[in-house]
Amino acid sequence: MKLSLYHRFDEDPNRLWHSSDNHVKDDTIFVFGSNLAGRHGAGAAKYALSLGARYGTGIGLSGKTYAIPTKDENLNVISIEEISSFVEQFKAFARSTPTEYFYVSRIGCGHAGYADSQIAPLFDDSPDNCILPLDWMLYVSLDSTRTASVAFESSTEPLDM
What we know:
The protein is an alpha/beta fold.
């Protein structure tokens, strides 16, 4: 598998990071923020339609995408606690499919209006097959005693696998 858009750092050698949204490789599943009605009309959700997301499906796997709700069926933003529950469901699914890679977009940080610092910690214990946004690095626990800011001193060259 070639992951040329992804990065790995010494502080957590099993964790992969990506530095830009909407550049998903064919062999990864795109994880995006959705609404419970499955109306994918803007942002990452609209992009997900091109990868097989189904209009009307607001939770779970569809094509090469996985929807995590950040809004309800009326397009109102849901609470962090509710989002956390959906993130837990996603992480369980990712653990159950270790041969797949999941490209996690900055769910909840666009149209839902949450800050990276609020959403990223929900992914602290995500499995190694989840490729997280580099923007979240400061907010996700690393498998090291070093701080996340030190990781930026590591190589940021794309990783080929």
